[in-house]
């Protein structure tokens, strides 16, 4: 993206203007606030510069155009026509004097049109050069039809007086289109023949030539020669609703239909004589709102229904290739907010978000429909990629001899180790020997010690190397028949797990002197095994060990391998989740808090503890869910933070864990499918990191700012409603499917479950086909209602009504004209029924409801908000809904929700938000019923 600019208001149309004697275009923008302006691109500042602002200050007293607002520009660039009001055309001119070429005249000329419902309009190419406008309009309100009318924009030859658009005097041509559902008009430029043609009054026998327009219908294509008034018609093999078009050249045009099919419309000619119109399918794309041909076979498809696309069109083979996708989350039909990080907490609610909060929204329409997870995340800016490096088992960064910064990357594979060296300019070279490292086996740990020595740990040996000459200084080997299954090191110790049953610590400052501990004596148990180990980098003599059977961790003294403190992580005896990775780091500034222990569990949770520096006791346990499988914890030095580290957790949704204002932030990261991370602060790439995936290795920078990240689940159906169940860890979604069956449109609704973590469909969809007529799902809500045994059971309630709400064990439904409170009862384990308790009829139509206790907020279609209270049945009286307050203003409400106390939030159709408050303590009953 080159640049962007904020516009205050909804943009209704964009139009390109080319002023006289200029090489650059102007952009004309119209908004819904009756404000219009022209802007140009300034290459010096790389920004849009406003040239002229035009505002219609008159009070709007005319009816809006029944079709979309339109702006037409004369091919000569002298005139512009806007169709904003029903039966009215606004005509503007570009300046004709020197110095005013880039400015529009402030005075508008308005003329009345007899064509009220305009379906499409365009300027028509003419032999005379006089601006001429063609309208495709509907002549009747009750019945669909299509008529074509052509007028001259100016009534005189000097183009000074705007035509009156009188059908009886000024209409130059009219034609009834046989396809009543025609909605597109395409201008076709004039192609000069060797013999110039002239206008004749008698056009009998004249042949249609290039230079006119095409009317596109659902079943018919019509070409009109605007000079000879000759018509060429061509029927379509199968009907289609066309929604957008773009010109490729004088005889080829791209057409997109409502189902996302991209077609090529070709004018078949003999010389310049039009003989036929043909239509061929190019491929399937997003449902287009506009098409723009950018040259060189590139076609931009802009969509309001899903992702926009950039396509490469091969005109010879008639194939399309997707070059780029521009993601769009609009339109959002419904959404649910989920804090995945708090999913593992036993406490109810947190004062702050864990950093893993996300919006799961139903986005797009029809075949562009999808469920999307939207979150604020830390971005990674890729610097380079090492391709064809698969099945990586470890990444380590080293310093070569005499280098002040790291310049070497060690990559461990299943059967070997490879070395890549980087020069100060960023050049890369693979080397086949490096300071005596063993490269014929996988490496568990490789690091450069502060004194320059090199440490390598493999499955059988621990080796200290002298970096200058690459000679071996010390070696420790495991006993025969055993192997090192896990290893971790800091600047003083190497901690090893031998066959998962024996702990060994080696002193790096004392010639790898060993201290051995077999499980069962002081730590672990005779039947237990080691699941993970960690040697703390900020506490030289402290390590952490995790165990399989007990699901516990122990903090140990690396000098003696004695346990300093133990903690059971799994909270229930039948839990199968065990610690799989550990990290003990100084996450917070040392003057605020001590070290923090992170434990990655097998089920995707990461448990954190504050560690006391005095007795190494653990406190302030918190649990965050980062994925469905265990996370890999990779310690990264924090840039600019001396002695402070961050942690990069690699799961299916990677996260960066860091400290902010004394709190632990689990910020989602844009890295997907990352398995290993290594810091790489080199001269060429300061503060960079290396990331390994299943396919390659990338070097990247971590962005300082968070940005929006979207993870889509394409469903190719409209996701109408979304409801979230924390207990099931799933979303319940109601979808609407539309497809063509034997040229007949079939609409069906269904309900399905989606997993909250991997965002994948669970099980098969439940189709809502119990009714003989077509019912589209309008609402889905999660509820806890009594089952046949009287116990609360979780249910997803699906309705064809407009909105649903839960009031304790009762269901509140907003129907077409009333709000009804139901009671749900299960007579058996296989049957249930809804019993009506009370009803309330609002002024017009309840578009949305929200429930707080016994109070129900109702958003009315035209009459703003009404607040009603549910009174249960008592003393032989039936339950009822009683109006308590109302907002006495004409507001087209769209949504309502309760904030706190007596305050409610309401949204209207104009995009406004308002807070309404009921005052039950007002002195009079009339004041109490008014919401302010």
UniProtKB/TrEMBL annotation:
User: This chain belongs to which protein, by name?
Assistant: CPSF A subunit region
Give the chief site where it resides: nucleus
* InterPro entries in the record: Beta-prop_RSE1/DDB1/CPSF1_1st, Beta-prop_RSE1/DDB1/CPSF1_2nd, RSE1/DDB1/CFT1, RSE1/DDB1/CPSF1_C, WD40/YVTN_repeat-like_dom_sf
Key word Nucleus present: yes
Q: Which residues form the RSE1/DDB1/CPSF1 first beta-propeller domain?
A: 4-326
Which cellular component appears as one GO term in the record?
Answer: nucleus
**RSE1/DDB1/CPSF1 second beta-propeller domain boundaries:** 383-701
Family annotation (Pfam families)? Beta-prop_RSE1_1st, Beta-prop_RSE1_2nd, CPSF_A
Locations listed in the record: Nucleus
**Sorted alphabetically, which Gene3D superfamilies does this protein's record hold?**
YVTN repeat-like/Quinoprotein amine dehydrogenase (2.130.10.10)
A Gene Ontology molecular function term of the record: nucleic acid binding
Q: Which UniProt keywords apply?
A: Nucleus
Question: Where is each RSE1/DDB1/CPSF1 C-terminal domain found?
Answer: 798-929
